[in-house]
């Protein structure tokens, strides 16, 4: 296996980590209007991800930096073609991050509710748009001979990409609800589990439909097999949630998201961006990657720093592993 192939796999791994980890952050943010019956409930929800949300976002920075260095042509085409979508994602992430930090700065009810709305919006927008982006990458774009996107902004919102956006939106929402049931106690835990059951039905239908459409239109043997595994783990997560096994359900949902991302990258390989207008303009791993020397240096850097990031993140999750309860939040307010 060549270095470009290895870095294609690593970028897929980085995005997988981002979607699994920040995915439940998005889901918790989306749950605020549905599970937060009062300010204490909403504080409980926010505190389930309070110590880790910014750490989870590290992976999108790592993925973006790796994409820029390893596949500069791919990076340039994606970030120019999806410029407005990426800008909306960035603004939503900023809005969400600011809201987490400033929500508690004043006791005023209206102040807090406005920031709660911004957390919700800042979670829904990227959860949907990331699906739109990756669905379009798998589907392909209209490219010229210089790998520049020559379509319009409206072309990015075709039926396949919209279904892909709804699939990631529902997957992350369900993922977040299961995480809430895993990290809380009492009534809010029960409400989260029941809502995860209702949303889970729609998630199975939409995500399953998206994976089926992907397999029929763009599938390869490996990607089709991975799509099948993703559907199985999604159903297993749903069943485990019905039985009140939050930890098992969360693990299966994390596996579902991971295998879904893997299936999309498998459907791409060995291409990185298909030209829908002219196959000759298709971007491949070979014609979009950096040189051997650059990839070699990156490999050594990743061998040093990726384990450090994983170790620190694992340590953080271990420290904040206990459930967040209303009594704990109420006590901290006094």
Quick summary:
The protein is mostly helical and 334 residues long. It has helices at 3-35, 39-49, 53-56, 58-70, 72-81, 83-102, 109-139, 159-183, 187-218, 221-242, 246-268, 285-288, 292-319, 326-332; strands at residues 271-273, 283-284. The chain is globular and about 60 Å long.
Write the layout of secondary structure elements.
Elements: H1 3-35, H2 39-49, H3 53-56, H4 58-70, H5 72-81, H6 83-102, H7 109-139, H8 159-183, H9 187-218, H10 221-242, H11 246-268, E1 271-273, E2 283-284, H12 285-288, H13 292-319, H14 326-332
Antiparallel strand pairs: 1-2
Helix pairs in contact: 1-2, 1-4, 1-7, 1-8, 1-11, 4-5, 6-7, 7-8, 7-11, 8-9, 8-11, 9-10, 9-11, 10-11
Question: What attributes characterize this protein structure?
Answer:
single chain, 14 helices, globular
Structure commentary:
By secondary structure, the protein is an all-alpha fold. Helix 4 crosses helix 5 (72-81), helix 8 (159-183) runs antiparallel to helix 11 and helix 9 (187-218) runs parallel beside helix 11. The chain has 14 helices and 2 strands, in the order αααααααααααββααα. It has helices at residues 3-35, 39-49, 53-56, 58-70, 72-81, 83-102, 109-139, 159-183, 187-218, 221-242, 246-268, 285-288, 292-319, 326-332, and strands at 271-273, 283-284.
Structural class: mainly alpha
β-strand number? 2
Q: What sequence of helices (H) and strands (E) makes up the elements?
A: HHHHHHHHHHHEEHHH
| Structural Rg | 20 Å
Q: Uncertain runs with pLDDT below 50, 5 residues or more?
A: none
Q: Walk across the major sheet and give the strand order.
A: 1-2
Helix percent band: over 70%
| Percent of residues in beta strands | under 5%
Give the count of helical stretches: 14
- Average pLDDT score: 93
Largest sheet: 2 strands, antiparallel
**Distance between the ends:** 59 Å
> Looking at the structure, what is the overall shape?
globular
């Amino acid at each position: 296996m060549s270095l470009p192939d290895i870095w294609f796999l690593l970028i897929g791994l980085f995005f997988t980590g981002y979607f699994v980890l920040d995915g439940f952050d998005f889901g918790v943010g989306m749950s605020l209007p549905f599970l937060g019956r009062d300010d204490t409930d909403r504080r409980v929800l926010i505190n389930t991800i309070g110590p880790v949300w910014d750490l989870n976002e590290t992976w999108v920075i790592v993925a973006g930096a790796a994409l820029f260095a390893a596949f500069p042509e791919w990076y340039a085409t994606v970030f120019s073609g999806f410029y407005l979508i990426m800008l909306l994602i960035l603004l939503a992430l900023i809005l969400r991050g600011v809201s987490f930090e400033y929500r508690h700065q004043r006791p005023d009810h209206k102040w807090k509710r406005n920031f709660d709305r911004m957390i919700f919006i800042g979670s829904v927008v990227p959860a949907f748009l990331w699906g739109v982006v990756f669905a379009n990458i798998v589907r392909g774009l209209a490219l010229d001979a210089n790998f520049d996107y020559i379509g319009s902004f409206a072309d990015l919102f075709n039926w396949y990409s919209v279904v892909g956006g709804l699939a990631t939106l529902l997957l992350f929402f369900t993922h977040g609800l299961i995480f809430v049931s895993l990290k809380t106690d009492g009534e809010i835990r029960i409400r989260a589990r029941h809502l995860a059951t209702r949303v889970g039905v729609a998630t199975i239908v939409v995500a399953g439909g998206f994976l089926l459409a992907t397999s029929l239109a763009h599938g390869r043997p490996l990607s089709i097999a991975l799509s099948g595994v993703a559907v199985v783990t999604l159903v297993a997560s749903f069943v485990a949630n019905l039985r009140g096994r939050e930890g098992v359900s969360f693990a299966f949902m994390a596996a579902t998201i991971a295998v879904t991302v893997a299936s999309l990258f498998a459907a791409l390989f060995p291409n990185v961006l298909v030209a829908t207008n002219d196959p000759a303009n298709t971007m491949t791993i070979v014609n979009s990657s950096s040189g051997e020397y650059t990839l070699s240096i990156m490999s050594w850097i990743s061998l040093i720093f990726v384990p450090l990031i994983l170790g620190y993140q694992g340590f953080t999750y271990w420290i904040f592993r206990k459930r967040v309860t209303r009594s704990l939040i109420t006590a901290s307010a006094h």
